[in-house]
Design a protein that fits this description.
It contains three helices and no strands. It is mainly α. It has one domain. α1 packs antiparallel against α2. The relative contact order is 0.13.
Length: 109
């Protein structure tokens, strides 16, 4: 089965890597928005590097057709890890810091 790309498989692989890079980049936005903290950032950095590294490895000519399936499975793992760490980070670290900040501001009034 041929990829659904006018320029063929090579173009499809480049698009997969491009979309993966955008996904990894956007995953960092939770930190400056205050939704996540340092724990999430570290997990997003490590898992994003692994996910993107696997994607970039698929640009080599020697990779077979199974690479796309593995990249899809890697994306499922990547998003699952991010969601789990986001929930943990927000529940235990970001909320605790927000609560402590709120208490200290009440004490100064």
């Amino acid at each position: 089965m041929q990829p659904n790309e006018p320029d063929g498989e090579r173009r499809a692989r480049r698009n997969i890597v491009w979309y993966s890079a955008v996904l990894v980049g956007l995953s960092f936005l939770f930190v400056p928005l205050g939704v996540a903290g340092a724990v999430y950032f570290a997990a997003a950095f490590v898992s994003g590097a692994l996910f993107l590294g696997h994607g970039i490895a698929g640009l080599r000519a020697k990779t077979g057709k199974r690479w796309a399936q593995n990249e899809f499975l890697a994306s499922l793992g990547y998003v699952t890890v991010l969601l789990a760490v986001l929930v943990i980070d927000h529940a235990y670290f970001v909320s605790v810091n927000s609560h402590a900040t709120a208490l200290s501001s009440r004490e100064h009034k």
